[in-house]
Amino acid sequence: MFEVTNENFNTIYPHLERTLKNASFIAIDTELTGLNVDDVKNSLFDSINERYEKQRSSIQPYIIIQFGITAFQRIQHENQYTAEAFNFFLLPRSIPSKNRQFVWQVAALEFLTAYEFDFNKFAYNGISYLNEDDQAILQQQLEENVLFHNVERSMSYREEDSLKDYINQVFEWLNTASDETNSLKIDTPTPILQYLTHKELRNRFPNVWTFSGNNMVTVMKIRPDSRAILEQEEGSILENVLLESYIGFSKVFKLLVTLKKPIVAHNALLDLMFMYQQFYKPLPKKYTNFKDSLHQLFPTIYDTKFLSFELREHLSTEQKWKFNSLSGLVEYFTEKQGKYLALGSPNINLTCKINSDKSNVVPSTKYHTAGWDSYFAGYVFIRLIHVFSAKCYGQSSTLKHFTHTELMNNVKSFANCINIIRGSTSHLKLDGPEPGSTRPKWLFVKTLASKPITAMQIAEKMSSFGAVDIKQCTSKRMLVAVANHGRGSIAVSSGLLTWLLHQKLQRSS
Amino acid sequence: MFEVTNENFNTIYPHLERTLKNASFIAIDTELTGLNVDDVKNSLFDSINERYEKQRSSIQPYIIIQFGITAFQRIQHENQYTAEAFNFFLLPRSIPSKNRQFVWQVAALEFLTAYEFDFNKFAYNGISYLNEDDQAILQQQLEENVLFHNVERSMSYREEDSLKDYINQVFEWLNTASDETNSLKIDTPTPILQYLTHKELRNRFPNVWTFSGNNMVTVMKIRPDSRAILEQEEGSILENVLLESYIGFSKVFKLLVTLKKPIVAHNALLDLMFMYQQFYKPLPKKYTNFKDSLHQLFPTIYDTKFLSFELREHLSTEQKWKFNSLSGLVEYFTEKQGKYLALGSPNINLTCKINSDKSNVVPSTKYHTAGWDSYFAGYVFIRLIHVFSAKCYGQSSTLKHFTHTELMNNVKSFANCINIIRGSTSHLKLDGPEPGSTRPKWLFVKTLASKPITAMQIAEKMSSFGAVDIKQCTSKRMLVAVANHGRGSIAVSSGLLTWLLHQKLQRSS
Question: What sections of the sequence does the record tag as coiled-coil (chains A, B) (predicted)?
Answer without folding.
Answer: none
